[in-house]
TrEMBL record:
The lineage of its organism: Eukaryota, Metazoa, Chordata, Craniata, Vertebrata. The active site is at 209 (proton acceptor). The keyword Cell division does not apply. The keyword Cell membrane does not apply. Its cofactor is Mg(2+). It is found in: Cytoplasm. This is ATP-dependent 6-phosphofructokinase. InterPro entries: 6-Pfructokinase_euk (IPR009161), ATP_PFK (IPR022953), Phosphofructokinase_CS (IPR015912), Phosphofructokinase_dom (IPR000023), PKF_sf (IPR035966). Belongs to the phosphofructokinase type A (PFKA) family. ATP-dependent PFK group I subfamily. Eukaryotic two domain clade 'E' sub-subfamily. Belongs to the phosphofructokinase type A (PFKA) family. ATP-dependent PFK group I subfamily. Eukaryotic two domain clade "E" sub-subfamily. ATP binds at residues 131-132, 161-164. GO terms for molecular function: 6-phosphofructokinase activity; AMP binding; ATP binding; fructose-6-phosphate binding; identical protein binding; metal ion binding; monosaccharide binding. Mg(2+) binds at residue 162. Pathway: Carbohydrate degradation; glycolysis; D-glyceraldehyde 3-phosphate and glycerone phosphate from D-glucose: step 3/4.
Length: 817
């Protein structure tokens, strides 16, 4: 029997003219469009031949969140409710998930704009979640159908895992038969049966396990990783003090994502996951690894065990078994920590809030496009791109993973998991004659050290001699270069800042001295990890190749800056940590207004001329406005925002939050905006200002930055190895083509190597930003969710495609543990 996990449901009820009540539910939008209070660039939608249908008074959308694992869903609830209201819909909550849908009554309540306020920072789900046995039975689904028809609900937005989504799809398939049965029993009439003849479903995937095929990340996974890493970082300090071995058991059921990623994020010595059971004799190999780590001077060992880990024969490997093994064979002082439900709770991370908000809006757009013949779909994340996939294709592939594991086809199980279950490199060191230098350039960014550690260890694994350059290009020309060994980067993953040292100095003035140092140390390749200065530095080295032959070597840049202003990459190492710092600070600042009320906060963020932190941080924190350089503003817009906040103070939400990028306008400074708001809001609200400053560059790296840094640096080193082999001839390395100096960046769905020369035309060198910014398309989202009347560009919304098209193009290697 299919198991359905608990659900929280949001219902969106169409609000259109009575004269359109008899329109068919399968008619496209262009034929059924009516006067909505606000619409979403309908003309552009028509031009792109994407036809939408309006929500009708007798029609409703429902969104659901399922099972205890599906927490941190409030941002998705907020986004669906507010986007629904934005397009003219009437919205309902269904409390306690499927049980509420079966029971009806007071479990189904109308949602308002204010009812989803102040919930972004809350964990769990405010509308409740409960397991429902009734919905597994035909009688329960019949009751649910009756409750929906009574309220004219024919659209559901389901947030859950494969069980929840499968249940919703079954409900959709049975819908016509359920209505016929209700007519037969006299509970509804034939007219109602015809009016509500089609049930439309769109799913969002919410699970801390990240076990759903078709999406790179599920809602809640990143927050769970935050909880795990917080605990591991704390445990490592006591383990270091007492020279202990810790065995940590993490959740995930039959999916090893949390275990694998947390192991990489904390630099664990060993990890055990269900998809890749260890070979026979793993006990001896593990003990040898732990002993070797201690012999190199380490005072601790960390072992991560997924709760569903087994050996090749299906025998469970528990944390207690691993502990006893270490104690008996090595005699190490060993402790076990089972993290348990702490992984499900706590404040949602910035990543989860942004992901849930994007998916919630995309789900509403997808529901607006459905017809009676449209298959149920899920909205998901592929790289940095929203996509729509057939629901049952994803469910079937997810079930195939478990089938492959049951049949001991483990490589197939890993492949089906997708690109976010990455292969770990177990390689033997070979000897090569290549020397590779790694350096940090620009301002410090959390995650730089993880990238350096990954690069060093992958480089050594591939046989290279690795050299560390201190203090960027300045240290390079001064000769601050030394060989760096495997053990030298131990424990670097969780440390913020730059342990190598980093400066903004560019190489042009000292290019001759840098060439001399490269000749002295026989440097055959360069890996530069940094921000916009690193990009400029690579271009200057490339330009000097004609003069200095020593510079004719493979060079690759990995973007690492909190500003996220490097051309050629959607994301940079360090930006996620900065976003979390901004988001959690804004949470605290907003909380301070809970008692005083009628207060507006002006927050200044970093970023130079790039408005990424202000815009995306504003979306994650629930800001009312964000002023940035990329979108010029004038006094009229400032006045409009003051009026908006004045109206807001008349509601139950009596506080405001406004973010300003530090270089958004040379005249409208933070002080000016503060003084303007204070004067114009006099008698209605008072104003406070905060400049966050360098706290955005500090702190321990977030799990995302640790793993993004690890993955991208490992991929960069593999590219360097390939280029070294290609360019080695007649006893030396010579690489002078454009494609031998690249930037490795995340572009929508994939990591891409791009020659820096080709990025020149994409760059605004005066303001040190890319000419086109992907995240600008998220700004209308922030305004919509803050109740501004604005247009939303649907040109980047997802298209329905098959799961096979969403799979990884190649396995993405991670650093050897």
């Amino acid at each position: 029997m299919q198991t359905y996990r608990p659900a929280s449901i949001i219902f969106l009820h169409g609000n259109v003219a009575d004269s359109d009540k008899n329109a068919r539910s399968d008619q496209p939008l262009a034929e059924r469009a009516v006067s909505h209070r606000s619409w979403i660039l309908l003309e552009e939608a028509r031009q792109r031949t994407r036809r939408r249908r309006p929500l009708k008074r007798e029609e409703e959308l429902a969104g659901r969140t399922e099972s205890p694992n599906r927490h941190r869903m409030n941002a998705a609830v907020r986004a669906v409710v507010r986007m629904g209201i934005y397009v003219g819909a009437k919205v309902y909550f269904v409390h306690e998930g499927y049980q509420g849908m079966v029971d009806g009554g007071d479990n189904i309540k109308e949602a308002t704009w204010e009812s989803v306020s102040s919930m972004l920072q809350m964990g769990g789900t405010v509308i409740g979640s409960a397991r429902c046995k009734d919905f597994r039975m035909h009688e329960g689904r019949l009751k649910a159908a009756h409750n929906l028809v009574q309220r004219g609900i024919t659209n559901l937005c389901v947030i859950g895992g494969d069980g929840s989504l499968t249940g919703a799809n079954l409900f959709r398939k049975e819908w016509s038969d359920l209505l016929a049965e209700l007519v037969q029993q006299g509970l509804i009439d034939e007219e109602a049966s015809q009016k509500y003849s089609a049930l439309h479903i769109v799913g969002m995937v919410g699970s801390i396990d990240n076990d759903f095929c078709g999406t790179d990340m599920t809602i809640g996974t990143d927050s769970a990783l935050h909880r795990i890493i917080e605990v591991v970082d704390a445990i490592m300090t006591t383990a270091q003090s007492h020279q202990r071995t810790f065995v940590l058991e993490v959740m995930g059921r039959h999916c090893g994502y949390l275990a694998l990623v947390s192991a990489l994020a904390c630099g664990a010595d060993w990890v055990l996951i269900p998809e890749m059971p260890p070979e026979d004799g793993w006990e001896e190999k593990m003990c040898q690894k732990l002993s070797a780590t201690r012999s190199r001077g380490s005072r601790l060992n960390i072992i991560i065990v997924a709760e569903g880990a087994t050996d090749r024969h299906g025998k469970a490997i528990t944390s207690s078994i691993v502990k006893d093994l270490v104690v008996q064979r090595l005699g190490f002082d060993t402790r076990v920590t089972i993290l348990g439900h702490v992984q499900r709770g706590g404040t949602p991370s910035a990543f989860d809030r942004i992901l849930a908000s994007r998916m919630g809006v995309e789900a509403v757009l997808a529901l607006l496009e459905t017809t009676a013949n449209t298959p149920a779909c899920v909205v998901s994340l592929c790289g940095n791109q929203s996509v729509r996939l057939p629901l049952m294709e994803c469910v079937q592939m997810t079930q195939q993973v478990q089938k492959a594991m049951d049949e001991k086809r483990f490589e197939e199980a890993v492949r089906l998991r997708g690109r976010c279950i990455c292969y770990i490199l177990f390689v033997t060191c070979s000897v090569s004659n290549f020397n590779v230098a790694v350096l940090n350039v620009g301002a410090p960014a959390a995650g730089m050290n993880a990238a350096v550690r990954s690069a060093v260890r992958v480089g050594i694994s591939e046989g290279h001699k690795m050299f560390a350059v201190s203090d960027g290009f300045e240290g390079f020309y001064k000769g601050q270069i030394k060989e760096i060994k495997w053990a030298d980067v131990g424990g670097w993953t969780g440390q913020g800042g730059s342990l190598l040292g980093t400066k903004r100095t560019l190489p042009a003035k000292h290019i001759d001295k840098i060439a001399e140092q490269m000749r002295k140390y026989n440097i055959n390749a360069l890996l530069v990890i940094g921000g916009f200065e690193a990009f400029l530095g690579i271009m200057e080295l490339l330009a000097a190749r004609g003069t200095f032959e020593e510079l004719c070597v493979p060079m690759v840049m990995v973007p690492a800056t909190v500003s996220n202003n490097v051309p050629g990459s959607d994301l940079s190492i360090g930006a996620d940590t900065a976003l979390n710092a901004i988001t959690f600070t804004c949470d605290r600042i907003k909380q301070s207004a809970s008692g005083t009320k009628h207060r507006v906060f002006i927050i200044e963020t970093m970023g130079g001329y790039c408005g990424y932190l202000a815009s995306v941080g504003g979306l994650a924190a629930g800001a009312d406005a964000a002023y940035i350089f990329e979108e010029p503003f004038d006094i009229r817009e400032l006045q409009s925002n003051v009026e908006h906040l004045t109206e807001k103070m008349k509601t139950s939400i009596q506080r405001g939050l406004v973010l300003r990028n530090e270089n958004s306008n040379e005249n409208y400074t933070t002080d000016f905006i503060y003084q303007l708001y204070s004067e114009e809001g006099k008698g209605v609200f008072d104003c406070r200002k905060n400049v966050l400053g360098h706290m955005q560059q500090g702190g321990a790296p977030s799990p995302f930055d640790r793993n993004f840094g690890t993955k991208i640096a490992a991929k960069a080193m593999q590219w360097i190895s390939k280029k070294l082999n290609e360019s080695y001839r007649k006893g030396r390395v010579f690489a002078n083509t454009e494609d031998s100096a690249c930037l490795l960046g995340m572009r929508r769905r994939a990591l891409v190597f791009q020659p820096v020369v080709q990025l020149r035309d994409e760059t605004d060198f005066v303001h040190r930003i890319p000419k086109e910014q992907w995240w600008l398309k998220l700004r209308p989202l922030m305004k919509i969710l803050a109740k501004y009347k604005t247009s939303y560009d649907i040109s980047d919304s997802g298209q329905l495609e098959h799961v096979v098209l969403n799979g990884p193009k190649e396995s993405e290697a991670m650093a050897a543990i």
